[in-house]
Amino acid sequence: MAFPKPFFRWRPHPWHGLEVGPNPPSLVHAFIEISPFDLVKYEVDKVTGYLRVDRPQRTSSQPPALYGFIPRTFCGQRVAELMPKARRGDGDPLDICVLSERPITKSEVIVNVRVIGGLPMLDGGEADDKIIGVLAQDNIWSHVEDLDELPQALVQRLRHYFTTYKTMPGDTSQQVQIDHIYDRAHAEKVVRAAIADYDDEFGGA
């Protein structure tokens, strides 16, 4: 029996070995690290590509959407230049939140995502954008083209989670800042910048 093409004899590294997506920057792949049901923060290990336990969530907050990153992206200088107060990018792949009508409880899955907007998160002076997208061909969200078409309660939930997920009760310090959310057009600029930053950092495909 012949192997299918393409065929990977070894598991591809999810950051470097997977494709950006079918039609970036509008339709991208997302490698999911955390589901909305996780009380532990997982993060891909940059050396092995396997999920590593980063930390148990310190509060009762749970991510309101699937959460992961876009393969072959890097938050470097180009991404930082799109956020006025950022000194640099955070040096990680570009984060993405994915809305799905049906509960997806597994992590380490790849999903096709239509980009619709984003949150400009500044964390310790570093650009740490959170792209927002919808599961491609989703039965409920497939009609959404831009962030302003989502229920505002969903957008506020995402913003609140990332504003507070590192904050312990009684902690008055502001570890992260999120300015005005941005639309699909700007989100696609951020994706393009992150792809270009990846090519600079690691070389193109």
Description:
The protein is α+β, with helices and mostly antiparallel strands. Helix content is 18%, strand content 26%. The chain has three helices and eleven strands; from the N terminus they run E-E-E-E-H-E-E-E-E-E-E-H-E-H. The protein has a five-stranded mixed β-barrel. The chain has a four-stranded mixed β-sheet with strand order 5-9-8-11. Strands 2-3 form a two-stranded antiparallel sheet. It is globular. The mean pLDDT is 91.
| Number of discrete helical segments | 3
**CATH homologous superfamily title:** Inorganic pyrophosphatase
Share of helix among residues? 10-25%
Helix/strand order, N-terminal first: EEEEHEEEEEEHEH
Number of strands: 11
Specify the overall morphology: globular
- Radius of gyration using CA atoms only: 17 Å
- CATH class type: Alpha Beta
Q: How do the strands line up in the largest sheet?
A: 1-4-6-10-7
Mean pLDDT: 91
Low-confidence stretches: none
- Beta-strand share of residues: 25-35%
- C-alpha end-to-end distance: 30 Å
Under CATH, the topology can be stated as Inorganic Pyrophosphatase
Per CATH, the architecture is Alpha-Beta Complex
